[in-house]
């Protein structure tokens, strides 16, 4: 049986998992690839660091070039993480005639166009199933399985750390800071979890999915993005009382004005599949014109789920499927910008609004009056008893635009009877 | 741009949907295939039957040969249904050098080995995404996305008609016959729904999935199979009281003794994703050694969801991905029988047992005594008040084997205090 020689760059959590699958399950990968996937070289920064997988003698190296310029390695898996050096590694690998597999969403979100152009220039391919939603094969599903469809919306829980923290806040009323600490203790959250909890990680993944699903060329930094790091557990409790749970959603919707994109804590009705996504799981809901609705759920991170996606890419690349897909999809090529990003102010939806208000007569009238001025109609109201002379007033609205909701909140914040900055979140059926 | 000429055989519900996608969305299919998918000919039995899609002049024919022996048609989509003539059409198409796409699970379940051998002999391919779970791309996910994994179990709601009927029985206490009538009125159930409701349809689909996931060569008729047509709404109510819903599940599990396969109404704990699969939806839960657990949900039937899967296959076939996959998977080849079917008697699990018993002292002791003799331990008991001197006694067991459960039920049925045939169903966490 023919061999395809593989080089890995990086032997951290994911790299070790990939090495393990290649070394322990050669029969399996060979059966699916129609050829042996041979782990030829693994480049690491520090040869002496303890590793949780054993490599055959001669495989480990601290010289990048021994992978990138290895004459027989055909596929390089970039599993080092980070952006700048990873970009260089991918570009040099492509230039050296290697196909590339990467799990690096930050790299793709930042340099997708440059890397894909380089791949095309050198007649090579880039595969990146593991970059979004870990073990959930959403990349292949969007770029291949749903190819008879125009996707019309895409809603995802794309960050397992945030979903774990939110689940903790919901089930035990744990405040954000404490839930984050627990996520770190359990290994779900990074030592520096900033990019997870501020929504940036979700926005990067959403930018990739939106490109696949809509051909949208979006800089992830332009996606309106709110994290969970400012979320008050009180809002979780109010949402629960009204039959909702709060999830950090990345949403992309095709509208007549372009693709509406947003990332933020969102109220999701209890009882639906998205509301039930538990712990560190990821999920993606896709609506498309032929198939209707599809829902995918699975592990969004972790060593072996991510390695599963990387090795599937290695198999597809070795077997020749990636070549077909990469060629036809024309990822991030000039030709593929089929739709623009819509004005976020025009995003339509229901809102959850919470105001801390004085416990004085006429407050509800004033606030609902302002909402009325902005043509925002109210779906339900929840007002608890006051303590210290103020009380939370929760208002759920019918569909309005983001622009009107924000303006109304500004006007309401300026009222004398309102004590702190209003809280606003999108609501999804 | 190059063209791939397509021929359809059959222009019923699915065929019309496929024609519509090819005719109305040529830009979309061409973008994904890297070439134009050109609908050249459609063969039907009766030219005069009214159709719900308009074809260009010259496309429709009542001569099979105009498709099968068309010199320029490269891919034939068999969408006529049935088994015998469909088998002939596929064999003749392959012999004439055409790649084949089919949505016909009955055909594959009956003749998969013969058809795939013929395809290999003629160096052609067969793609069949639409044959299982309609719009849910489970075939591609198993044969491609999860290729780094050994699947260890596979649980599916694979028949939308049954799921609709069960949902109706659950939500409204509608008896089976009445729920079936409603499914027929709404177009979910066929005029002759026998193969749906007796579980045969699910068993055929499960046989295909088990072959993909485990390499098991199983005749679908050998899969132990119970339908929903004998299900008593009383058992649905008892299950609900104990926190479960009843779903018609197809289950395949890898055990040390081979693949355990079964189809039957099964108690599924409320609150999980599988329990929430509503109406005519399909769902598949996959457990695999690298990725862990994945859950897919979507429309299991219907014109456009099924057409979405067929056209994805046409695109994959025209683009060249199907060739790679079909070659490496060696479907139903002699080489691929990697695992045998396990003895159904050895299937391990919890059971729901219901006995109609006399309302006399000592009955519970007798019945639990028999269970004890079979080393079956009890997890919970539910006994309602008697009417007419008899009462339903519901017992949920801890894990036991199918063999022990069946023997125990036989022994219990022979007791004087037991009035009718015991009811037994598997329970899944």
Question: What key phrases describe this protein's structure?
Answer:
alpha/beta; NADP binding (chains A, B); Alpha-Beta Plaits; elongated; methionine biosynthesis (chains A, B); 429 residues; ten-stranded mixed beta sheet; 15 helices; six-stranded parallel beta sheet; threonine biosynthesis (chains A, B); 3 domains; amino-acid biosynthesis (chains A, B); homodimer; Dihydrodipicolinate Reductase, domain 2; Rossmann fold
In short:
Two copies of one chain form a homodimer. Chain A is α/β, with parallel strands linked by helices and 429 residues long. Chain A has helices at 13-24, 26-33, 64-68, 84-95, 105-121, 138-145, 160-172, 176-185, 194-197, 200-214, 233-241, 303-319, 321-329, 363-373, 402-413, and strands at 3-9, 36-43, 60-61, 73-78, 99-102, 126-127, 151-157, 244-255, 258-269, 281-288, 292-299, 348-358, 378-383, 390-397, 400-401, 423-428.
């Amino acid at each position: 049986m023919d061999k395809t020689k593989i080089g890995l760059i990086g032997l951290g959590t994911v790299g070790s998992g990939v090495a393990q699958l290649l070394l322990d399950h050669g029969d399996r990968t060979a059966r699916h690839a129609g050829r042996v996937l041979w782990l030829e070289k693994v480049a690491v920064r520090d040869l002496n660091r303890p590793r949780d997988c054993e490599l055959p003698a001669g495989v480990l190296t601290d010289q990048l070039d021994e992978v990138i310029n290895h004459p027989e390695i055909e596929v390089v898996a970039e599993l080092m993480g980070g952006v700048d050096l990873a970009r260089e590694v991918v570009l040099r690998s492509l230039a050296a005639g290697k196909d590339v597999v990467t799990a690096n969403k930050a790299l793709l979100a930042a340099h997708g166009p440059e890397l894909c152009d380089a791949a095309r220039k050198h007649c090579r391919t880039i595969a990146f199933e593991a970059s979004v939603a870990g073990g959930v094969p959403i990349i292949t599903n969007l770029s291949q399985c749903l190819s008879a469809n125009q996707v019309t919306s895409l809603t995802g829980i794309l960050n397992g750390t945030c979903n774990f923290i939110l689940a903790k806040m919901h089930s035990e009323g744990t405040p954000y800071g404490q839930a984050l600490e627990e996520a770190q203790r359990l290994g779900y959250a990074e030592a520096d979890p900033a990019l997870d909890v501020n929504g940036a990680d979700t926005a990067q993944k959403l930018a990739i999915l939106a490109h696949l699903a809509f051909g949208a060329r979006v800089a992830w930094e332009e996606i309106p993005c709110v994290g969970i790091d400012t979320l008050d557990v009180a809002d979780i409790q109010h949402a629960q009382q009204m039959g909702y749970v709060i999830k950090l959603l990345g949403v992309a919707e095709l509208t007549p004005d372009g693709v509406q994109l947003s990332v933020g804590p969102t109220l999701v009705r209890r009882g639906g599949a998205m509301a039930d996504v538990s712990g560190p799981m990821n999920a993606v809901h896709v609506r498309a014109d032929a198939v209707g609705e599809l829902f995918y759920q699975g592990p969004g991170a972790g060593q072996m789920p991510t390695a599963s996606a990387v090795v599937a890419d290695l198999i597809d690349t070795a077997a020749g499927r990636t070549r077909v897909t990469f060629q036809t999809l024309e990822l991030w090529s000039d030709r593929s910008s089929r739709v623009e990003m819509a004005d976020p102010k025009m995003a339509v939806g229901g809102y959850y609004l919470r105001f801390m208000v004085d416990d004085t007569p006429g407050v509800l009238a004033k606030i609902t009056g302002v909402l009325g001025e902005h043509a925002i109609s109210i779906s339900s109201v929840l007002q608890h008893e006051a303590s210290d002379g103020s009380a939370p007033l929760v208002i759920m609205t019918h569909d309005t635009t983001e622009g009107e909701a924000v303006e109304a909140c500004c006007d309401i914040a300026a009222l004398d009877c309102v004590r702190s900055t209003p809280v606003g979140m999108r609501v999804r059926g």
